[in-house]
Amino acid sequence: MIQSPGSAALWHRHQRALPSWEHLYYEQPLALVSGRGCTVTDAEGNGYLDCFSGILANFLGYDVPQLREAVDRQLARGIVHTSTLYLIDNQVRLAERIAATAPFPDARVFFTNSGSEANDTALLLACEFAGATTVGALRGSYHGRTMAAVAVTELPRWKPTHLSPFDVVFACTGHHGTESADTHPSGRHDCLDDFLDRWGDRRAAAFIVEPIQGVNGFVEPAPGLLARYHEALTDRGALFIADEVQTGWGRTGATFWGIQRHGVVPDIITFAKGIGGGFPLGGVIAPAPIMNRLRGDSISTFGGNPLATCAGLAVLDALEDSALQANADHVGGDILRRLQDRLAALPLVREVRGAGLMIAVELVDPATALPDAAVARTVLEHCRRHGVLIGLGGRAGNVLRIAPPMTVTVDDGRRLVDALTAAVAQISHHTPNGGSATATAATATGRTTP
Known about the structure:
By secondary structure, the protein is of the alpha/beta class. It has helices at 5-17, 53-56, 65-76, 89-99, 115-130, 147-151, 191-199, 225-234, 288-291, 306-321, 324-343, 373-385, 410-429, and strands at 32-36, 39-42, 47-50, 107-112, 134-138, 167-171, 204-209, 239-243, 268-271, 282-287, 349-355, 358-363, 388-389, 391-393, 399-402. It has 13 helices and 15 strands. The strands form three sheets. The chain has a seven-stranded mixed sheet with strand order 4-10-9-8-7-5-6, with helices on both faces. Helix 8 links the parallel strand 7 and strand 8 (239-243). Helix 11 runs parallel beside helix 13 and helix 12 crosses helix 13 (410-429).
């Protein structure tokens, strides 16, 4: 797979026109030009099984008839945008359907363009409702790129500024892997006690969590821990915000919302990515007393526009009609079991974990047991050469992330497992007697992605 002069020129233009901090995957970045189902094709004509779904956003895959037909019907009406100053039938219908999925009564939905904007809005609602600005979040968190979302993001490489509109206290996840660096600053062993000690007597506004952390490498807080945080902070007046940007809409398989895995009923839910099927669509769900608490008026010019909400309705139709949540549970479970069977004993692999179609493989240097980002990038390159696209994550960039479209088949999953295990086994073969995997890893430009 050699980059064509056209793609090389595009890469050069990208470097000249876009910010230096907007990184690309691969030694030779690829341009995707077409797709169908779970397969995409690059500018050179190479086909790939997409197992990262546009960072979990291409919920149904590519060239999906139901989605295309719905969007074409809306385009044929000549209305792509009107703004929230006018009634939008698609927006109201989608809000009604989303509100019906909420685990709390009298739900209201506000639409945004992204998960970052949704989390920003949720934090605004919580702070206004509580009359406070102290917010709790988890270590290893990533909540977006707006000022408010960055403030509650803990991962260092995704925190471009430490300036903050909040007083933020970070809590441990209870996941003590090498990738999480989830230690207690006070040296205490109990996550909740440590967190409350550092919180002190400050007035609480909110606690925001990803039920399964995305950028941190699909890390899930320890069983029962979120319920303990929820109980303690509710007593202090904090609203519990579930960031479901990556975990929502049945992607975790067993539950529709990821937070349901933890037995917690949140006060606010944020969503984005998958619901738009590739169109920019996000939002916030909250009970009317919380949602309606804002003083003054507010709008989102493009949030919930007719085209994006039309796509959202088509995604929900497909989710229900094709039993995609059950498919995530079945196919994701098959992928996870096969990867655990074939990789768990390899010295490069610290852990294979996941839920539904959120699966991660954490890689380490077998000589030191420390995170090995270079070997993860090498596996990323190897999988591309064998026609499979995956993602990276983890605090150190050493975690492989697997999140194919919800329409992925068992055969697709087995193709992924074959490519990934071949890559890891080949690298393991070249690191005999626990030698450094990093020394054998090729340099690449892969970075973690939200």
